[in-house]
Amino acid sequence: MNDTAGQGSEQQAVVISVRGDAFAEAPAERATVSLTVGFDGAERHDVRERSTAALGECIGSIASLHEPEAGPVVTWTADDVQVWADRPWNTEGAQLPLVYHSRANVTVTFSDFPRLSLWLEDTANRDGISVGGVSWTVSDLTRRELEARAQRDAVAHALDKATVYAASLGLGTVTPRELSEPATLAHPLVVREDARMFSVAGPSVDLAPAPVRVDVDVHLRFTAEA
What's the rounded Cα separation, in Å, for the pair 85 and 167? Predict the structure, then answer.
């Protein structure tokens, strides 16, 4: 919404509509890893068996670290193994025998980043596992605190702007009449890397999460009289 100033119909008050915006940041407190388990092959049973075994090992490594309150793993989910087939074509336009594919999605959220580094290094080097990415977030309590801080700052920003407009028009103190919040947007940093990039030399994978940022926009309408 563009900042506007107009003539009100009641008591000859001028209506001043402005937008205020602000943001708040905090260090990341949670890291959610998304990965897939899958194989390709000519035999359906073999593809399923390899996928089931790999998925079981992956879940086992997660479950051994799972502690909802203390961490290092606070939550995790895993899908069942899905198997499907297609018949590819060669470069000469002839269809080839069936190829079977499998896939299972896994997500795991860590609250301990050094433990996450160690787990990622081990997991990313297992056959059939591909790491899709790491998303950095904060706890629900921290997110609410960030939103509250950004909301207060956004309102203060709008009040400052309305006061400047009123003063430039030779008007008195502004009085708030209406407030709306069109959007509150959270912007966690998402890092996507190839799974093999985690197989670097060294005792662990170094992770450097960026701060999590919450942006708030508010629209306020004020009146001011001469």
Answer: 71
